[in-house]
Amino acid sequence: MSLTVKFGVSTWLWTSPFQTSSIDELFSKASKMGYDYIEIAVEDPAIIDGEAVKAALTQYNLKAIVCGAFGPTRDLTHEDPAIHQNCFKYIEACLDFCALWDTKFFAGPMYSAVGKARMVFPEQRKQEWQLAVENLRIVCEMAASRGLEIALEPLNRFESDLVNTAADVLRLIRDINHPAAKIILDGFHMNIEEPDIVAAIKLAGDLLIHVQVSENYRGTPGTGQTNWAAYKEGLEAIN
User: For the domain 8-237, what is the CATH superfamily, name and number?
Assistant: First the structure.
């Protein structure tokens, strides 16, 4: 990772779902605040006019990051292959947005459904892990065909039972074994799951391409208990 720090803000801070009617208000706000990027949370591609977003990015001098939303109908570890196909269709639409908006990667916890946090037998866990690996390899091919990468995000234990830490996502990427597979780390989840923030960032290393930050309670950075010096130390260490 080459540490070129650019700051952005997520559309989730102000609205859900993001849609065409949200563009001017949110992009104007982000631009006036001095952000370089706006992270667009694509919950429903059908309600977003991609060309309108592209024009607004130019108008407000912003660059885009695209992140996904993965619920029960977009679960690559589900036993029903039809659910996988629905997820692939959604990811394809998001990747098309990435290409249109000159975004280099698509980010999110796309390995499983958010909120899928259970106690399951080891054999089921193994089967679901293998489904994630095989299906994400397909997603990597979809991304690579467009010159893009994917950034896989660990979630805390209350939101996922598959990938919770930097070590987990690194193991997943090694099993996927595709150059398009990279890492996004979210400080909110890290503050719950990682005993050592510096070590987690170092472990992600060159695979880390995006970092999301908020306070330990999802609030504004600097208003909570987060050890920001640890993030600085970790990111500088992998530069």
Answer: Divalent-metal-dependent TIM barrel enzymes (3.20.20.150)
